Amino acid sequence: MMAGVGGGNDFQWCFSQVKGAIDEDVAEGKHILPLKQRKACPTGPTSSRYPCAVSEGALGSIQRSVIEALQGVWEYRCASDIISTVEFNYSGELLATGDKGGRVVIFQREQESKNRLLSRGEYNVYSTFQSHEPEFDYLKSLEIEEKINKIRWLPQQNAAHFLLSANDKTIKLWKISERDKRAEGYNLKDEDGRLRDPFRITTLRVPVLMPMDLMVEASPRRIFANAHTYHINSISVNSDYETYLSADDLRINLWHLEITDRSFNIVDIKPANMEELTEVITAAECHPHQCNVFVYSSSKGTIRLCDMRAAALCDRHSKFFEEPEDPSSRSFFSEIISSISDVKFSHSGRYMMTRDYLSVKVWDLNMENRPVETYQVHEYLRSKLCSLYENDCIFDKFECCWNGSDSAIMTGSYNNFFRMFDRNTRRDITLEASRENSKPRAMLKPRKVCTGGKRKKDEISVDSLDFNKKILHTAWHPKENVIAVAATNNLYIFQDKIN
Amino acid sequence: MFSKGTKRKFSDGDEEISDESLVGARVASSYSLQRQSLLDMSLIKLQLCHMLVEPNLCRSVLIANTVRQIQEEMTHDGSWHMVAEAFCSAGQSPSERLVATEVLCRSREQDAEPKLFSVISYEGCREEEVVADETLCSVSVSDTVSNVCLAGRIGQCWEKSELSGVERDEEALEDSRLGSGEDEEIDTKDRASTESPKTIGQVFGTFEIKNGSPGPDSALEELFSDVDTSYYDLDTMLTGMQSAPKMGPYDILDSLAPSHSSPSIVSTPNCRSDLNELDHIMEIIVGS
After folding, report:
1. Which residues in chain A have Cβ-Cβ distances shorter than 8 Å to B158?
2. Quick check: pTM over 0.90?
């Protein structure tokens, strides 16, 4: 049963977990020993009982630090860089994060234990690997950042898990698999590992599979490279589970998951003369059910829906979504704040949601001339647009997400605030992801920003908002009321209170 | 001055002019100052990029579009010849810009009733409606040029000025003050208009755009601490105008504000060489 945001009789959001480094605890290259540990985290590729394996080669670049976990258990965590993407998989069992350092950390939900009062399991580190490395483009003499821009899971088809991770230029398909058995009993080698002389082997011994400590391995299966001149901003897996699209500032390419050496270009908005460039692609997504339909948004606040059956090159849209501008509120910043930073289809496929700088809009795919719902995220910033332009905050790209039943939507704001909107009751709530609220199962108190002169108790004034603490990436569990919120280099997990 | 009962309609206009033209002209000048400042800021953002990582194209496009908008509006206003100074002052660092207050881009809800001022422009026979509220005037203009304030209502003025743009251009040519500097104006217009697309071409064509360096934290604190929302009175505005750049189309201000003196924001000779140096550097990097 999914519902509700807001207080009262509705769901109350509680703190569940936080992952990441506390700034004061992070030391350069220093290993901080845990005071007490119930689970040992491995220091090498072979893991102990705790499935926290790290792929070989990544250890040197990962800095370890200790964070305070719940229930008083100290655990090793990898010092995380700024989180740049968060994504649940289709079942919600796994939660992947990508960061600025090119690493991917996957959390897995514990099986619900009967011992604990909590009816929901916690998320613990399942796998960590270095997905992308920094590169250098010799032709342009520019660095290519290793920052992971997007992670998208593939639906699970066998025991292994697959995900796509993309930086500015390259997309990689990763296979994450478990190994908990080892074949033992070979008599082909000596104790020191040398192959025995075949004449010495007198018996045929069939190896036996013996259980071993669980090891999670991540291996790159496909590398889709050299297809994007500009920075990749979106990837989206098609509902046929065979193809996916990748979008950069000016082009969208369609790939087959098996084929890495070529891709189809399906949208190209690059003008012949780059001086005439006035609009770029900001996000793209495949329709969740119709494998021939996708949408892409632009920096001018428009969304185009395209049908791949219509033509090979989908420059001509099937539908064009744009809300007419309110002429009375026009300013020099109107275009910038209308630029769409994220577009997401609802799970039903009937609606889509777009995020621009100040608001979130829900569109009915059958109505192109205006959105059906508009939610103001932080309207109080409208009077500060010039300052936000000066410090570049106006270019921040906030993401948005639906809950599993499409009844609620969530997006981030500044000061580590994030907002949830209930589409049915039209109620909204502002919550904060902070360490102060991070006691186990502590209930989150709704926050309020004071815009007028009189500031009430517990309200925060617009001028004291911290614009460096921005929540750009959030994710909602596909089936339950569990959310993951990325606040700079910390990942917060909240769940609703069980009554 | 005049008792209300005896005013005729025409002299109503006169009285309004005498009392309110001051504020109106000030508002208009303040707006153009702030627009100029926004233009400067945008140009700096386009040029000040560190060449380590490939720049963010979306951001560059949005800034360039903002620059285009300002240029278009300034062309309509006839103040495009000031853009030469705008390009020159691109050499200034962002931190020299006055930190904006919450006055900027005041939201519609906060505007109770927009105040309409009738201003007689320098042509002497046409009205220009400038919509503003009091707080627009409260942007403190101290030693440096203030950030651009673009109140939402300005849009109406923008549209109106577009409609009457043709008329105004004709009248501008008739005006003797502009007439003397007409050649100069055209020259600078050409130079500016060719420079602008050239800059934008460099922006996109060769990915020379670098990300603007983010403002220092102290600037950010400055931004949101001790916001002064008090209404400035006439004296403060006039005092503030001392450091304003000399605006050609708004010479009326000079006559109205006796304390106005020409400022020295940027020394022109330095600007030119900076600009040339920048072009030179870009050419080297592009290798063309």
Report:
1. 330
2. no
